[in-house]
Specification:
about 270 residues; mainly alpha; about 0% strand
């Protein structure tokens, strides 16, 4: 009896161990199945998220491309508009220049006509009163109404400008200098001083040209030619490497003539010189 019990003991233990192993295996299989299900669900969720992100990125890329296309079109429209405005400004400036030249020629012609000799008054045929008395209210002498000798400022300016356009810088300069000397208060004096500088520049005498440009702003600070002369003077200083003086000149234009066309050009030069 005892021997049988001893023989049955190991068999019982093996059977119990086998049952425990199969139970653990089923638990492990269940756990693996749960993990696979959870992993599959997580993968499905991630795929859905990736699909949503991909769709959102595609829509964003489409929006960016559309925005870029609109920006490019806008830039093209702006450039075309600016080009058109520039062409219109050039046309306006050309028309303005033509009008100013015609006005100047007209004023010169008027001065020439005013200075042309007038016909002498006809002699009177009336006899003097009896007794030989000479009337006191006789006609005035013709030379008392005579105008100043030589051309007027507008005529002199036009003659000198024609000389400069023909390439005779020295002869033109002499005429402009004569105008400034004879008519210092004329509205043509600043123009003449400016073209004195231009005549020197035409001869590539930049030292004399710079002095003449500076004289425009010094003598005629309220003239429309003052900012133009200062800007040309500043450019000459910049080309000569005198950058501190060039910056000071451009700054003067911006401060004293902020609404002039040269003020915007001077701001551009100041930005490039920094």
């Amino acid at each position: 009896m005892n021997v049988r019990r001893i023989a049955l003991g190991p068999a019982v233990l093996l059977a119990a161990g086998a049952c425990a192993t199969r139970s653990d295996l089923r638990v492990l299989q269940n756990d693996l199945a749960i993990m696979r299900a959870e992993s599959a669900h997580a993968d499905s969720t991630r795929r859905a998220q990736l699909d949503r992100m991909s769709t959102a990125l595609t829509a964003l890329n489409d929006s960016v491309r559309l925005a870029n296309s609109r920006v490019y079109r806008f830039q093209g429209d702006v450039q075309q508009t600016l080009y058109s405005i520039g062409q219109q400004l050039l046309a306006i400036q050309e028309l303005t220049g033509q009008t100013q030249r015609r006005m100047q020629e007209f004023r010169a012609q008027v001065e020439a006509q005013q200075q042309s000799p007038t016909a002498a008054p006809p002699p009177t045929s009336a006899a003097p009163p009896t007794g030989g008395a000479v009337p006191t209210g006789g006609p005035a002498r013709a030379d008392s109404a005579a105008g100043p000798a030589g051309p007027g400022p507008n005529q002199l300016f036009q003659l000198s400008l024609d000389q400069l356009r023909r390439g005779s810088a020295g002869a033109a300069r002499a005429g402009f200098q004569d105008l400034v000397r004879r008519y210092p208060t004329s509205d043509m004096a600043p123009e003449a001083q400016f073209y004195i500088a231009e005549s020197y520049a035409a001869e590539r005498n930049m030292t004399a040209a710079d002095s003449a440009y500076a004289a425009v702003a010094e003598r005629y600070p309220n003239s429309p030619r003052a900012p133009t002369a200062l800007f040309k003077y500043g450019l000459s200083l910049e080309r000569a490497g005198r950058l501190a003086q060039a910056r000071q000149t451009f700054d003067t234009i911006v401060r004293k003539y902020p609404r002039s066309d040269e003020a915007e050009l001077a701001r551009d030069r100041l930005r490039s010189l920094r």
